[in-house]
Amino acid sequence: MMSRIVFCSVSFHLLLLFWSSLLSYGSVAFASSVFKGNETDRLALLEFKAKVTHDPLQVLSSWNDSNHFCQWEGVTCSRRHQRVNRLVLPDSKLEGSLLPSIGNLSFLRVLQLNNNSFHNEILHEIGHLFRLQFLGLENNSFGGEIPSNLSGCANLEWFTVGNNKMVGKVPGELGSLAKLRGLYLLLNNLSGEVPPSLGNLSSLVVLSASKNQFEGRIPATLGRLKRIQIIAFGENKLSVDYLHNHGQTPMVHCDLKPSNVLLDDELTAHVGDFGLARFLPEGTHSLSSNQTSSIGVRGTVGYAAPEYGMGSEVSTHGDVYSYGILLLEMFTGKRPTDEMFNGDLNLHDFVKAAIPERVIEIVDPILLQENEGGQTSLRSHSVQESLISIFGIGVTCSSRSPSERTNMDDVTSQLHSIKNKVLQTPRRGQKLL
Q1: 3-state class of 119 per DSSP?
Q2: How far is residue 152's CA from residue 131's CA, in Å, rounded to a whole number?
Q3: Using one digit for the tens of pLDDT, what is the confidence trace for 284-327?
Q4: Alpha-carbon span 144 to 325, nearest angstrom
Q5: How many angstroms separate the CA atoms of 181 and 178, rounded?
Q6: How confident is the model at residue 84 (pLDDT cuts 50, 70, 90)?
Q7: Residues near 316 by beta carbon (within 8 Å), at least 6 away in sequence
Q8: Which of 24, 192, 337, 362 is the most exposed place for a label (fewest CB within 10 A)?
Q9: What are phi and psi of 12, to 5 degrees?
């Protein structure tokens, strides 16, 4: 009996020793793993610092061995593993570039370097940061193409790279980022067509891509984005006629007004601010009633079509009305909201009553400039005819009844015809319209 007790006691102690040894080994292995990861993060941060060539605010002065790297300026670590999960250095006047070792910060969730002077390419190693949720790089000097393997950042919610020097096409692989809510690409030199795969970004709220070199069609797939609030493609190679008639799916801008029409260096007009824009079902000119119920305000007072004020559906006819008002404002110098327009008088009726006989009386005085011979350039018969035609187009476009308005395809053809006639007319010393 005694031998059995001794045996059981020995067995128990051996078993306890086994599990204690195993636990100790596990603890040592875990500690070793943590140390290894910590050292990887520390070295990656030091390499980041080494590539910063200018730090006038001494933001990185705390990045030395006197402090643990989790206490360095702009660095935040996770509590459990003491791994870097946030690198936040905005508005720091830092100059430099990134190294591939940035991809070793495998626990990184936030990388925010906006409003600095970082340059060179956005490294494809960033695509290895599968935990990354926020990538803020706007207002720097990053160049090259957007890495296609950013699709590896499966948890990415915000990607802001506006106001840099990015070139090339937007990689279609970005369409796989199911959690992406904000995509800011504005103020770059991106080109080509907008990839249809962006229509797969089911969580997308903001797509800002103004002031690039995009061309071609706006993908119909963007019409599937149910959560989208802002789509901005201003100052690209797009026009109202293109939006209505030449894209894969008709689009209505819904807010044409002077501040949303911008001129480039060659005085070519570009439509901007697509915050209220809506896609229409293919082959139609308006939305169904159930689609318009959530749109709310449709345009700006003075430029919004009168039927919108009565709850009518969004349509291409509404954009035509706004375009007509813009045309009349540009050539008369009078806004539709000027004090003179009250009661029954509006800009449309003001111009309609003056053409054709009194066309010179309503033209913006700035256009009535004298040539070298002391004659006003607009006095020539051909130019007056052109003005009458232009005002006629503006009046027709801004008709109260949508059915009486000209479609943008015809408007474009008519204006091009007028332009060609004016440019072909010899007017020595006169200013071209």
Answers
A1: strand
A2: 9
A3: 555 443 344 344 547 888 899 999 888 888 888 999 999 999 99
A4: 42
A5: 9
A6: very high
A7: 244, 250, 252, 280, 285, 286, 407, 408
A8: 24
A9: -60, -45
Query: pLDDT exceeding 70 applies to what percent of the chain?
Result: 76
- Please give the Cα distance from 29 to 16 (Å, whole number): 20
Task: Work out the end-to-end distance of the chain between its first and last CA atoms, rounded to an integer number of angstroms.
Answer: 117
Domain boundaries, the chain: 31-237, 332-424
Residue type, 17: L
Return the H-helix or E-strand segment holding 117: strand 117-121
- Look at residue 198 and give its three-state secondary structure: helix
HSE, side-chain direction, 13 A CA sphere, residue 433: 29
**What was the pLDDT predicted at 18?**
47
Q: Which CATH number fits domain 31-237: 3.40.630.30, 3.40.109.40, 3.10.129.10, 3.80.10.10?
A: 3.80.10.10
Give phi and psi for 99, each to the nearest 5: -110, 155
Do residues 180 and 153 make contact, with C-beta atoms less than 8 angstroms apart? no
Pairing of strands 141-144, 230-232: unpaired
Could you give phi then psi for residue 303, rounded to 5 degrees? -115, -20
Q: Model confidence over 132-164: pLDDT tens digits?
A: 999 999 999 999 999 999 999 999 999 999 999
SS3 label, residue 101: helix
| Residue 211 CA: distances (Å) to CA of 208, 238, 262, 278, 350 | 10, 11, 10, 20, 36
Q: Whole-angstrom Cα distance, residue 166 to residue 375?
A: 49
Using alpha carbons only, how large is the chain's radius of gyration in Å?
32
Q: What is the pTM of this model?
A: 0.62
| E strand or H helix at 24 | helix 2-50
